[in-house]
């Protein structure tokens, strides 16, 4: 096993599965973030160590593509590695396997490092004398075969819901937590569509929102299986608010005569 | 260690803590339910085995009282045991300890067994020839020092919020999950009140609700530190709906001149 790649066991708990008996995508996202945190912490790049120097990681993109979603009571594992580092961003990939080593899906993520006081991005290549480059796993060593993060183009998105945010939405920093956006976005869909299952989910985080902010969800259908969602905060009758995140959901294709 | 008492390790993940850095009560409740499920499964009374005979456990009451809430990244453990069995209900208790064995809090729960088709309760004392009595731990063996479940009396409760329920609220059976009620109830409170921390939380589950039901929250303040909440489903302008659950929250007392 490549020493730059960590494997993180997960177990699918009964309250963490949806009405199809498969893990909620938000819960899976949470497991991925925990695997990432664990991997970077072991290499001296964990949030605890970084915070002492007023730095922290910020998740910018997350794309998850699943051939099969883990089921209730299933033991699985997540392997994670750093695919590359640029000046302001680093790419981290994931593979999700069952306990026999069969691949169930993959994920890609993009992270920035910011200064917690100025909120400005840091140069990853010079921090700690470029130490992060020691952990890069090349494509020859381990490949992540899913497509990269896509681009969003909102042209005819329609407002479908506005929600208030509360205590349970907020993380230790007082921000709406990354996983909660995924939950609220999937909550836009009805039972029939969600029963199809999600093949790919992408999210781009654009701005922070806080407890008490209102979130407005704009939905645009790109095709039979694909829907884009833009989340804006604190829209008013006069203003369109600020974009907080954008997501693309690709549902499993259902052949219509099987319906 | 008493062989009728199991110990279940838990770890407080970063996305499972609130803005005070302490675990969300709903997440702690989820851990308690997992510890319970694990304990009963090991003794042949798990949901998997029961479902084969069309039986399942239904949580009726849960009361959690904490001296100290587990913190971010903390390793803790939950011990759980059966305190007693009546014909239609069984009492299960919990102790929550840190990894040095210092008690952080306790919980009590009441469960019924139902037939999944008729939804009628079963006689626990005669099922499997009274096998469940083999697991009872008397008060002499292990004591749970917190008060029993209280009674609710709603006299002047005011409607403070009505919400729709969605995909993320629902468990594998299509019911709004027990933990989600706890989250929605705590979401009624503002930042200042939640910063005090919760000393005791009680909930009585009265009826099931389903994805798409609306939930209305009626709040009654009993004193400086104590609030009762009644949740009703599908209220209309003409009807008061049906009671789904009732909860009591006792916040940590704050001496006013310290405010």
Poorly predicted spans of chain A: none
Beta-strand percentage range of chain A = 35-45%
Write the CATH architecture name of the largest domain in chain A: Roll
CATH superfamily placement of the largest domain in chain A: Hotdog Thioesterase
| Average of the residue pLDDT scores of chain A | 94
Order of helices and strands of chain A: EHHEEEEEHHEEEE
Helix content class of chain A? 10-25%
What is the number of E strands of chain A? 10
- By oligomeric state, this entry counts as homodimer
Overall CATH class of the largest domain in chain A: Alpha Beta
**Shape verdict of chain A:** globular
The largest sheet of chain A is: 10 strands, antiparallel
Tally of separate domains of chain A: 2
Number of helices of chain A: 4
Question: Could you walk me through the main structural features you see in this protein, from its secondary elements to its overall organization?
Answer:
- The structure is a homodimer of 259-residue chains.
- With 259 residues, chain A is α+β, with helices and mostly antiparallel strands.
- Chain A has two domains: 6-135, Hotdog Thioesterase (Thiol Ester Dehydrase, Chain A), CATH 3.10.129.10; 158-258, Hotdog Thioesterase (Thiol Ester Dehydrase, Chain A, Roll).
- In chain A, 15% of the residues lie in helices and 36% in strands.
- Chain A contains four helices and ten strands.
- Chain A has a ten-stranded antiparallel β-sheet with strand order 1-3-4-5-2-7-10-9-8-6.
- The termini of chain A are far apart.
- At the A-B interface, α1 and α3 of A face α1 and α3 of B.
